[in-house]
């Protein structure tokens, strides 16, 4: 069961739009628990998230709330008919409808909490860190907000009238909270609360100087942590390119948490969708990687991942239930290397959702 928060009217909130992003949400929750947060954990899930994954999420989140903008009973339904491209954006806006809480911090599912940052709840709406690409805009991967039905309605109407300059929630929120850049510097969060991992490539000296102060890592970009190869025998992650190598330490922490806190619980589940979700991961030992590279008939990991996203699994071959289960059994039974220590704390003993 999830830990009981000592501050029950404030919450960390994230969104899982499918089973793959739910894996990120699971690691995020365990990272928050490791950091000894005192706030509640809430995950909003889209209808596409399968029942088995929801059960695992419920073990670590205090609230698992489905948000469906296509529900005919929702006023957003009419809006989507007029502006269908805003569907994902509307889904994220549902965080303003979490009326059980008076203040929340939203975290994208591709973020990782490195140390306790409950002090974020001392900030007001809308507080966020500058975006690397255009610092006069904030990055919407981490932001402080206050749930309010009227704010939700205002955002909805604003989206229908003005849309989003980048096609997503970040463009919309920056237009709506347009005074953020100039109004109050207190609403500008330090970069350590939303450290974009790929930014390390552009300013390595700063990363070396301030890495120990990083509180939240944001794996921004098309390559997410769960898309890298992880060797369960050696307990090591292998990055895909030079840019990602600058954030290898953070990626290693992500996989350490996944291997120790998430994988055993998911593998113990009885739902086939748990196995299928795990089947998307690249869990291969070094010898297996070499073997795959030597075979011209084996799909590349990129092709295999793309096929999974389209629902085109190779159930008779690589993605068969037997192959996936055997790989999971091997990963769980193999002794892991010593875990990299997080700046804050080790997981509490016997806390099931060590988020």
Automatic annotation (TrEMBL):
| Alphabetical keyword list | Cytoplasm, Glycogen biosynthesis, Glycoprotein, Manganese, Metal-binding, Transferase
Q: Which domain of life is it from?
A: Eukaryota
SUPFAM superfamilies given for it?
Answer: Nucleotide-diphospho-sugar transferases (SSF53448)
Q: Where does the record place it?
A: Cytoplasm
A Pfam family that the UniProt record links to this protein: Glyco_transf_8
List its EC numbers: 2.4.1.186
CC terms in the record's Gene Ontology section = cytoplasm
Which GO BP terms apply? glycogen biosynthetic process
Q: Where is this region: Disordered?
A: 333-355
The answer to keyword Repeat applying to this record is no
Manganese: is it a keyword of this entry?
A: yes
Q: What class of enzyme is it?
A: transferase
Q: Where is the composition biased (Acidic residues)?
A: 345-355
Catalytic activity, as annotated = [1,4-alpha-D-glucosyl](n)-L-tyrosyl-[glycogenin] + UDP-alpha-D-glucose = [1,4-alpha-D-glucosyl](n+1)-L-tyrosyl-[glycogenin] + UDP + H(+); L-tyrosyl-[glycogenin] + UDP-alpha-D-glucose = alpha-D-glucosyl-L-tyrosyl-[glycogenin] + UDP + H(+)
Q: Which cofactor does it need?
A: Mn(2+)
Gene3D superfamilies reported for this sequence: Spore Coat Polysaccharide Biosynthesis Protein SpsA, Chain A
A GO molecular-function descriptor? glycogenin glucosyltransferase activity
Q: What family is this protein classified in?
A: Belongs to the glycosyltransferase 8 family. Glycogenin subfamily.
What is the purpose of this protein?
Answer: Self-glucosylating initiator of glycogen synthesis. It catalyzes the formation of a short alpha (1,4)-glucosyl chain covalently attached via a glucose 1-O-tyrosyl linkage to internal tyrosine residues and these chains act as primers for the elongation reaction catalyzed by glycogen synthase.
Query: Matching PANTHER family, A to Z?
Result: GLYCOGENIN SUBFAMILY MEMBER
Indicate what this protein is called per its UniProt record: glycogenin glucosyltransferase
Starting at the broadest rank, the lineage of the source organism is: Eukaryota, Metazoa, Ecdysozoa, Arthropoda, Crustacea
